[in-house]
Amino acid sequence: MGTDKKYNQSDKVAEATLLDGLLSIGLYTQDPSPALNTLNDHLANAHYNLRANCIRKSSTQKEYNEKARALLHYFAPKYKDECTKIGALENSLNAHFIKNAPAPHKKTNTISLLFDKIADTPKPATTYTPAAPKSRPAQPTKKPSVEVDEAKTTPARQTRTKALKTTDQQMPLIAIEKPPLVEKKKITNPKPTDTEVTQADINTSGSIITDDMIKNSAELQINISGIIPSKKDKNPIQHGDLIDKRWRNIDNALIYGYHGLEGGRSLHTFMKDNRFLDIEIQDVVESAWQHENKYKTWPTRNSPEAIELPRISRFKWVTIDNKLREMGTTLDTVLKLNGCSNDMDQKDVLSVARIIKNTTGSLPGSNDTKEITIAPLVDERWKHIHMAFVNGNRGLPKINGGLPAFFEQNGLKDRPATKQDVIISAIIHKTTDSENKWPNQRTKEKIEDETLLNKKSWAAIDKRQIEGLTLVQIIKEYETHQELYKGVEEKAEAILGNLRENQKTQDLSNNTTAIALSLYALDQFEP
User: Fold this and answer.
1) Mean pLDDT of 204-228
2) Angle at 69 between CA 68 and CA 72, to 5 degrees
3) Are 74 and 174 in contact (CB under 8 A)?
4) Are 355 and 375 within one domain?
5) pLDDT value at position 26?
6) Other C-beta atoms within 10 Å of 165: how many?
7) What's the confidence (pLDDT) of residue 360?
8) Which stretch of 23-32, 56-65, 91-100 has the lowest confidence by average pLDDT?
9) Are 490 and 465 in the same domain?
10) Less crowded by CB within 10 Å, the N or C end of the chain?
11) Cross-strand partners of 246
């Protein structure tokens, strides 16, 4: 609560705590003395007037604090015997504010500063004279009610009942003196919640923590699990010198200076200052090689594949590229400088596309994910080449429309599909079908071969009516007049052989990649 803030009725916590604290002076004994009860009466009445005056005059919090301190010192010399309770009042108020403060680090801004070591504070520059209570108008007669026997009520009830009574006696002006030093009564702290400072933070005996210990546990956790330490992590630490501790408590220790640490920091700033939130070029290059071994292509800014290296597995490739740009470079530049470049030449793309068109009669599609087996684009994929044209990377120009637009610019077009193309794809489907049936317009599987009709659906072919015939009519014509379709079976068998060979190569490549990654993991985590 800043000194420039106006004291208003919204400060309910401060008002209620001050009133309860003043009244609680008489609650520490089972049989309060008459003088103590009188003190409670004056304190309650004086506090009521003080609060009303401060609200009416729009006093600042600083002015209210000074008047409240003067109020306490005013009663100290008159009731010397009862002022031994002031120390207990200090502890009670401080414990209350520590419990109810919005955050632990804000407790120094609350009204509890009024009662922090009252005996050691200098005498206030002003004195306080209690105002005479105003007389109340006569109340209308009410029905008789049950009388309360004050002798049978508890001390707390008696004190609070008397505190509400008004008095016509105006206390004389007395010089302010310091109250005597008293031994503070030990107050048991309430059980802290998750948002408060825990006892483990406060008790530093035998639990010294250093910056190196935090670095050790943080580095091991990042390398093994890829998780950056955070104060939101409530699980015990599993690695390093801080085993069984919690990052939430480490964050509090860095803020308040517990466990021998330098305060004024947080766990996030500690991780940032020690570059745990940055990325290393070596980790990027290593992850790029893993990506190439698994997906047969180098990563780019828009690569959707996950990063497997634990130290940076929390990032995406676009995030890594952004961080590298903040460092003055890019992902593409880093990969080129470290031998991870896979730039292509437009002439190579055209030559391989012509070979495929002459063999199958159709150009490769932009969604084709099968590996290319023709040099110099071996192990590449047409889908990745298409994305390279779209994004303008890997040495290829940026072209709207990607691979199909590139083919059109260079005069490469697909020829119209014929009945022979339909029969070749139908023979391949029947050979691979578990029931050895011809396809029809209701067949759900799409064509998966290297023909002109690759990736097309049988329903679309039937609706298209190639050369004026539906799918069923073309198959019926083939069965009736096979002399019209010479050589289609040989072509279908050749394409089917290539498909089987590619499948074997793909299975072998997957097994090799899995073995390589397993050996890499064993080498990295070998004890």
Assistant:
1) 75
2) 90
3) yes
4) yes
5) 42
6) 10
7) 73
8) 23-32
9) yes
10) C
11) 236
pLDDT tens-digit map of 223-281: 777 677 878 777 888 878 888 888 888 888 888 888 888 888 888 888 777 766 667 78
Q: Is pLDDT larger for residue 138 or for residue 70?
A: 70
Same domain, 365 and 441: no
Based on the fold, state whether residues 20 and 126 are members of the same structural domain: yes
Closest CA to 26 of 40, 41, 15: 40
> Which tokens go with 10?
């919204």
Cα 495 from Cα 498, distance rounded (Å):
5
Alpha-helical regions (H) of 465-487: 471-480
Does 429 lie in the same domain as 397?
no
> Which tokens in the block code for residue 142?
């009410």
CA angle 253, 259, 262 (to 5 degrees): 65
What's the CA gap between 478 and 472, in Å, rounded?
10
Specify whether the CB–CB gap between 108 and 200 falls below 8 A: no
Higher pLDDT, 86 or 380: 380
317 lies in which domain range?
Answer: 286-328
Distance CA 45, CA 519 (A): 82
Indicate whether 169 belongs to any domain.
Answer: no
CB neighbourhood size of 345 (10 A):
12
Residue 96 lies in a domain: yes
- The whole-number pLDDT of residue 103 equals 41
DSSP conformational letter for 410: T
Give the residue with greater pLDDT, 159 vs 214.
Answer: 214
At 62, the amino acid letter reads K
For residue 292, being part of any structural domain is answered with yes
Are residues 402 and 492 both part of a single domain?
A: no
pLDDT of residue 78: 56
**Residue 403, both tokens:** 């691979």
Residue with the two structure tokens 């919690």? 246
Within-domain flag for 51: yes
- Mean pLDDT, the chain, integer: 68
Query: Mind listing the pLDDT tens digit for each residue in 399-417?
Result: 998 998 998 888 887 777 7
Same domain? 440 vs 399: no
pLDDT of residue 333: 80
Residues 368 and 256 in one domain: no
Q: Is 485 helix (H, G, I), strand (E, B) or coil?
A: helix
Rounded to a whole number of angstroms, the distance between the first and last alpha carbons of the chain is: 55
Q: Which residues pair with 10 in a beta bridge?
A: none
**What is the full DSSP assignment across 250-313?**
HHHHHHHTGGG--SS--HHHHHHHTTSSS--HHHHHHHHHHHHHHHSS---TT--SPP--GGGT
Task: Report yes or no: 124 and 69 within 8 Å, Cβ to Cβ.
Answer: yes
What is the total count of domains within the chain? 5
Q: Which residue has the tokens 């190569």?
A: 505
The letter for the amino acid at 212 is: D
The structure tokens listed for 446 are 């799409």
